[in-house]
Design goal:
615 residues, alpha/beta, Rossmann fold, Arc Repressor Mutant, subunit A, six-stranded parallel sheet, 25 helices
């Protein structure tokens, strides 16, 4: 499909290209840009991905640059001049940068040969990652009406594709789509109570690379530590890591020095690793689009691979609480915006371009704001370009204890003044003896019954005594106001977007729950139909198609029944012991166990073991 897309672009046609994750989208605009004289403008919402692509191009001797945030005006001016006169081939821009007048004026003077819109689904209000700033990309049509466009995405439903063409004002767009079907990839749903146990079992089936997706940074550390203790080479990856540490861990994984990467959902964009055999989601994904992208990172070499969701009933309320209960409404967004302006004493009509560093939790505490709700409100204000919001990860508060647990207990007995603060750290955060761990000082204070200054002073004293290594910075957040303060007048135009975001998010969550619950239709077919493919057939390898899944036939159930009874007549067993001892598929054993419980044939002991009722 790449060749056909490249040919259409070289024919100066507008193109929408839909290629699955790992389908090589970047080549589709890079090759035409290199064939023709001039420069290609690439609009992308992902700063890390822009930087990666620029580094990769520069390593090949191709002149490329990225205009990301945090670059001083004078440097931007010089960089734009280089694009006009310096024989550059690629200029990567965020949609926000495109709004700047200086950027627009210089684009008129650049020798542009192509405009590429990466992650093009972001321009559609029906897309899973809609960004209002993307709507203004069409300004490039007015600036350079002579240049053709290519929009690229790995996840777009039919309504989204139509909307992309409309929003970008594409002329008779060629829509080129490679089937999203992955014949080597088995989509599996496993309902399990003990996820860690099943994860260990799953990873020991294959010795090749794997990605484990979890919801929080804390979980990445905990799961990586759990796997390491089980003899499985694993490391964690999340946004809070220092840039050099991220690079080191990524390179070790790419070179197979580390086998398993435990990561939050941001991991994997633009990373090309062909031999990932297993992708596991320990939490339900927030949308089928994001799941499809993340699952698609398995088996890019064409060899058999698995994408597994480990789930149980507790996941449903967790998913709804995380993504629905914390959705910011209009009143909250107005309140947070107003309090930010008050906090920094911004006068009406002022503030545009001002940068401020501050402590996020102190801000929330001062105005009695729920920190999670306020955080989501700020993310929304960032997304709609009212302000730029970034967490200063390199300025996090971190701690690591340098002595053993027994030595620390002895120290606290001798120095009880530190007891409350240290124990608050230990009870709240795991891994503090093994590594530097990010901590929230306000949370520690709340649990220890002290204030921030006193807690910081104590932890700094522990550093002087070489009991701990404590790094503390008062500021963990930076915002830049992008528009003058107008309070309600600023927020009111965003009301339709805020309401649309809430309804879209609810719909996406419901689609995920339906996908997980539907054990009648092939998982691959469900995903392909969601993305608008009509010519589908069962894959034969997913958890629905595979005979190891679903309900066992009557004869098999009878055999399992007698085997379970035989075991329990000897002694009581846990469900795990039963599944390990019987030579039947685990799913089938669990089905029979459930039936025996429902019919009252089994009872459970206080240690959660099964026994026969008549015994």
């Amino acid at each position: 499909m790449q060749e056909e897309i490249i040919q259409k672009v070289l024919e100066k046609k507008d193109v929408i290209a839909l290629l699955p994750t790992g389908g090589g989208k970047s080549l589709c605009f890079q090759v035409p840009a290199l064939v023709n004289p001039g420069l290609c403008i690439v609009v992308s919402p992902l700063v890390a991905l822009m930087e990666d692509q620029v580094n990769a191009l520069q390593a090949k001797g191709i002149k490329a640059m990225a205009l990301t945030g945090g670059i001083h005006f004078s440097e931007v001016d010089s960089m734009l001049d280089n694009c006009i006169y310096g024989n550059y081939k690629f200029l990567y821009l965020s949609p926000e940068r495109l709004q700047q007048e200086i950027v627009q004026e210089r684009i008129k003077l650049m020798p542009v040969n192509l405009v590429a819109i990466d992650e093009a689904h972001c321009i559609s209000q029906w897309g899973h990652d809609f960004r209002p700033a993307y709507r203004n990309i069409a300004i490039l049509r007015n600036l350079r009406p002579d240049v053709n466009f290519i929009g690229l995405t790995a996840t777009a439903t039919k309504p989204v594709v139509i909307d992309i063409a409309r929003q970008l004002e594409l002329k008779d767009a060629e829509i080129l789509q490679k089937s999203f079907h992955r014949e080597n990839l088995a989509y599996l749903i496993r309902e399990v109570q003990d996820k860690n146990y099943y994860l260990e079992k799953l990873l020991k089936e294959h010795e090749e690379a794997a990605i484990i997706y979890v919801r929080s940074r804390k979980a990445t550390i905990e799961i990586a530590q759990f796997l390491s203790k089980k003899g499985i080479s694993a490391t964690s990856f999340h946004g809070g890591l220092h840039k050099t540490e991220k690079s080191s861990r990524l390179q070790n994984w790419l070179k197979d020095k580390t086998r398993v990467m435990v990561a939050t959902s941001a991991f994997g964009m633009g990373i090309d690793k062909a031999n990932v055999r297993t992708v596991v989601h320990l939490n339900l994904p927030e949308s089928l689009e994001s799941y499809f992208q993340e699952a698609g990172r398995a088996g890019r070499d064409g060899k058999p691979a698995k994408a597994v969701i480990l789930t149980n009933q507790s996941d449903i309320p967790l998913l709804k609480n995380q993504f629905l209960a914390t959705l910011p409404n209009v009143d909250l967004v107005k309140l947070v915006y107003k309090k930010l302006n008050s906090y920094f004493r911004i006068a009406y009509g002022e503030g545009e371009g001002e940068e401020h560093f501050f402590n996020f939790y102190e801000f929330c505490s001062k105005y009695e704001l729920n920190s999670l709700h306020a955080y989501n409100a700020m993310l929304l204000l960032d997304r709609v370009s009212i302000l730029s919001f970034s967490e200063q990860f390199q300025k996090k508060t971190k701690i690591q204890f340098l002595i053993s647990g027994n030595q620390l207990n002895y120290f606290l007995q001798e120095n009880p003044i530190y007891d409350a603060v240290v124990k608050a750290v230990l009870r709240t955060y795991g891994g503090t003896f093994e590594d530097m761990v990010d901590i929230n000082l306000q949370t520690i204070c709340d649990k220890a019954g002290t204030n921030r200054a006193e807690a910081a002073k104590m932890l700094q004293q522990l550093t002087q005594k070489q009991i701990a290594d404590f790094e503390h910075d008062q500021h963990d957040t930076k915002i830049t106001f992008l528009v003058p303060r107008e309070d309600d007048t600023t927020i009111n135009p965003l009301v339709p977007y805020i309401e649309l975001q809430a309804s879209t998010k609810k719909e996406k969550i419901e689609q995920v729950l339906q996908y997980v619950a539907n054990d009648r239709k092939c998982k691959s077919v469900q995903l392909l139909e969601y993305f608008g493919e009509t010519e589908t057939s069962p894959c034969g390898i997913c958890s629905v198609c595979n005979t190891s899944g679903g309900k066992p036939d009557r004869e098999t159930m009878k055999k399992i029944y007698f085997a379970i009874v035989g075991l329990l007549e000897e002694k009581e067993h846990t469900s795990r012991e039963i599944t390990e001892k019987l030579e039947f598929h685990e799913e089938h054993i669990l089905v029979v166990l459930q039936l025996l419980i429902e019919k009252g044939a089994l009872a459970t002991t206080v240690t959660n073991k099964y026994k026969l009722k008549h015994l």
